[in-house]
């Protein structure tokens, strides 16, 4: 091992390889367990990334990519392996205002990249609570979703081109800038959402959008579940394509993020079973605001909405979004288990009732908080039971995931599989799908050095039943 580390050091220099206490320090502060890596390698270029992979490949050494370490499913656990941090590759290389594209290195922090784009009068629509730490490479590798998928799609829809270093150090450059390119297989898709198990993303070309010049945000209270999908359809039609977010909250989540010690104040009385944050992004503030208000008024007249408040200025808009993003407050109920599932809207009400019933049948006073992106079929389920012991976690996982099997749902809407959800992959994918995933892995990474053990169970061809 010390031999490999010396070779890495001679190729990448002292700043490029951290060991001992320096490496341990880098493993702190992740949102899920990162383990203790043997060393942290910090390439400053694609060429250095390739050199590091070549050496690890020759030594059969496992290597785990780290971006902003905000992943929530233990995808970055590098226990006993080498961590490959992209933190020195953080440049926004080019913003092409003619073709509307950004060429960016994998370690660029999402928020910094968005700010650079905004300064040029464009918009990069990926938005998530971890925007201040998560990186473009991490977003690509997890196919991140977030708040505006309804309008702009997930990260996959935003990536035009990709540069990836393969397990053996080969640099695969597919830095396409065009919206259309059907010349053979679209190879970049193999690396989007595959959590660093098939290649290391080093650079990307992403699609930009015109910067919106209007934003309207409202908080809405509704009295029954069915009103939420009706409101979604109503707003989508009435806003003529400017609907950009439709974030739903069950009352327990709303109460938590609007009651002390939460910083947020309740925009509406806490008397509704469901709340929705609705956002529209458009091109003309006055006209868009009038349309937004009229659409909400019509929803009230039709009885879809019980109560609504529209933010009057930017600070009120930000305050409404801050409620949705208040993870600090969610952590008040620690220990908690967090889940990110997707399912058809028509199944949601029954699914939530089933999960709550099953939890209540096993624990005295379980807490359940539910919120999510209704239009994407994505619910975040946060459960607090007992002392958070591992046996309880396994039982809760079964309660949360098992009802999804019969309704074609997914155990992972947007966070990925990592280590945490690996036992349940076969609950959302067919044996044939999982077998093909193994075939791809064996072809691209025959020595199994890239993020070993994540997503797929090593050696298994079919996921556990
Ligand atoms: C408060 C909070 C809110 C969040 N909200 C959302 C949300 O709304 N939607 C959503 O989708 N996610 C959300 N997440 C999860 C997380 O932010 C995303 O998964 C994000 O895309 C991870 O980016 P990262 O740079 O932190 O990646 P990391 O956590 O560093 O890594 C995640 C995975 O990607 C791999 N990886 C990282 N960089 C590379 C690379 N360059 N090449 C190959 N593999 C790589 C890692 O090995 C790991 O498997 C949230 C997380 C937090 C903490």
Number of E strands: 18
Give the helix level as a range of percent: 25-40%
Uncertain ranges? none
How many domains would you count in the coordinates? 4
Please describe the biggest sheet, giving its number of strands, its sense, and whether it closes into a barrel.
7 strands, antiparallel
* Rg calc: 23 Å
CATH topology of the largest domain, by name, is Uridine Diphospho-n-acetylenolpyruvylglucosamine Reductase, domain 3
How far the N terminus sits from the C terminus, by CA atoms, comes to: 37 Å
Number of helices: 15
Bound molecules: flavin-adenine dinucleotide
Beta percentage is 15-25%
Instruction: Please identify, by name, the CATH architecture of the largest domain.
Output: 2-Layer Sandwich
**Mean pLDDT, all residues:** 95
**CATH domain class of the largest domain:** Alpha Beta
* Broad shape: globular
Widest sheet: strand ordering: 15-12-14-13-17-18-16
Q: Structural class, from helix and strand content?
A: alpha+beta
Based on the model shown, name its key terms.
465 residues; alpha+beta; Uridine Diphospho-n-acetylenolpyruvylglucosamine Reductase, domain 2; Uridine Diphospho-n-acetylenolpyruvylglucosamine Reductase, domain 3; Alpha-Beta Plaits; 4 domains; seven-stranded antiparallel beta sheet; five-stranded antiparallel beta sheet; 15 helices; binds flavin-adenine dinucleotide
């Amino acid at each position: 091992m010390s031999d490999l580390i010396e070779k890495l050091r001679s190729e990448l220099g002292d700043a490029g390889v951290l060991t001992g206490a320096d490496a341990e320090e880098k493993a702190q502060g992740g949102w899920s367990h990162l383990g203790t890596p043997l060393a942290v390698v910090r390439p400053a270029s694609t060429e250095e990334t390739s050199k590091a992979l070549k050496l690890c490949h020759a030594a059969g050494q496992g290597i785990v990519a780290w971006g902003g370490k905000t992943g929530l499913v233990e995808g970055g656990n590098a226990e006993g392996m080498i961590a490959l941090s992209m933190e020195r590759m953080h440049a926004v290389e080019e913003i092409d205002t003619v073709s509307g594209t950004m060429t960016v290195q994998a370690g660029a922090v999402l928020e910094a990249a968005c700010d650079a784009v905004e300064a040029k009068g464009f918009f990069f629509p990926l938005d998530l609570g971890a925007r201040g730490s998560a990186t473009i490479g991490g977003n690509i590798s997890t196919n991140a979703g977030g708040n505006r998928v309804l309008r702009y799609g997930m990260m996959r829809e935003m990536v035009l081109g990709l540069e990836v270093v393969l397990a053996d150090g080969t640099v695969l450059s597919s830095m396409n800038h065009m919206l259309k390119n059907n010349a053979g297989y679209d190879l970049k898709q193999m690396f989007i959402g595959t959590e660093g198990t098939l290649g290391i993303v080093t650079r990307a070309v992403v699609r930009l959008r015109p910067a919106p010049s209007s934003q309207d945000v409202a908080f809405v209270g509704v009295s029954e579940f069915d009103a939420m999908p009706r409101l979604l359809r109503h707003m989508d039609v009435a806003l003529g394509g400017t609907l950009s977010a439709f974030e739903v909250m069950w009352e327990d989540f709303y109460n938590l993020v609007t009651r002390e010690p939460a910083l947020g104040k309740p925009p509406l009385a806490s008397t509704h079973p469901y709340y929705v944050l609705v956002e529209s992004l458009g091109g003309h503030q006055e006209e868009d605001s009038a349309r937004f208000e009229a659409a909400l008024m019509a929803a009230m007249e039709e009885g879809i909405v019980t109560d609504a408040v529209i933010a009057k200025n930017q600070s009120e808009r930000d305050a409404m979004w801050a409620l949705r993003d208040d993870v600090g407050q969610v952590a008040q109920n620690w220990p908690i288990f967090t889940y990110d599932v997707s399912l058809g809207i028509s199944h949601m009400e029954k699914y939530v009732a089933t999960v709550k019933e099953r939890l209540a049948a096993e624990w005295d006073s379980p807490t359940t908080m539910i919120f999510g992106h209704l239009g994407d079929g994505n619910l975040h389920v946060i459960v607090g039971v007992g002392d958070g012991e591992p046996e309880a976690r396994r039982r809760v996982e079964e309660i949360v995931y098992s009802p999804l099997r019969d309704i074609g749902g997914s155990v992972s809407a947007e966070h990925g599989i990592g280590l945490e959800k690996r036992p349940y992959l076969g609950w959302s994918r067919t044996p044939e799908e999982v077998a093909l995933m193994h075939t791809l892995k064996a072809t691209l990474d025959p020595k199994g050095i890239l993020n070993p053990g994540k997503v797929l169970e090593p050696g298994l061809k079919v996921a556990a039943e």
